[in-house]
Amino acid sequence: MSAHASAAIDDKTFYLREEHHPENGTLLGFWTYLMSDCLIFAVLFACYGVLGRNYAAGPSGADLFDLKLVAINTAFLLLSSITYGLAMLEMEKNRKGTTLFWLGVTGVFGACFLGLELYEFWHLIHEGATPQRSAFLSSFFALVGTHGLHVFFGCVWLITLMVQVGQRGLILENRRRLMCLSMFWHFLDVVWIGVFTFVYLMGTL
């Protein structure tokens, strides 16, 4: 190969110099995912609305629900939303240490929420209020359990991001991921307020 041809090959650029990630593309895509998740919960709420009074001669919500326990659990989730907001404020100030601290507090509140929810499920099953006992209990476990699974995966995601922030700092990619998790976490809070009102409060009245 001649020196001229070799120089011509060396001058070629085989990559894009501009940012390949579309501006706000991830956030838009994540909003689309959240809307699809809204449809899932809308179907579960609709099922509970139809089946929530079919007790099959079994216990009702007034017989089973412990509102004090559920209120404590609700406080855990709402507090986790506040602490995540504090983490985002620290992220905007580029404070890695305090961002990780508030993310850790958020994870603790999320774990407390899951622990109380598992205790409630264990207690209901111990009392014989299993999902197959009635349509009411089937729809209850489906709705509340699906929300609990979302919180569980949110905690896993949170731990993963804490590791990434610890290793690489508050780089642009980590900021974008934290924003997505923020939307997801606050979305779970909104859904839980609906669960608390529609399932627990109305179920005990």
TrEMBL record:
Pfam families: COX3. SUPFAM superfamilies: Cytochrome c oxidase subunit III-like. Gene3D superfamilies: Cytochrome c oxidase, subunit III, four-helix bundle. Residues 1-204 form the Heme-copper oxidase subunit III family profile domain. One of its GO terms (cellular component) is plasma membrane. It is found in: Cell membrane. It is a multi-pass membrane protein. GO terms for molecular function: cytochrome bo3 ubiquinol oxidase activity; cytochrome-c oxidase activity. Keywords: Cell membrane, Electron transport, Membrane, Oxidoreductase, Transmembrane, Transmembrane helix, Transport. Cytochrome bo(3) ubiquinol terminal oxidase is the component of the aerobic respiratory chain of E.coli that predominates when cells are grown at high aeration. Has proton pump activity across the membrane in addition to electron transfer, pumping 2 protons/electron. Belongs to the cytochrome c oxidase subunit 3 family. NCBIfam families: CyoC (TIGR02842). Heterooctamer of two A chains, two B chains, two C chains and two D chains. This is Cytochrome bo(3) ubiquinol oxidase subunit 3. It comes from Methylopila jiangsuensis. The gene is cyoC.
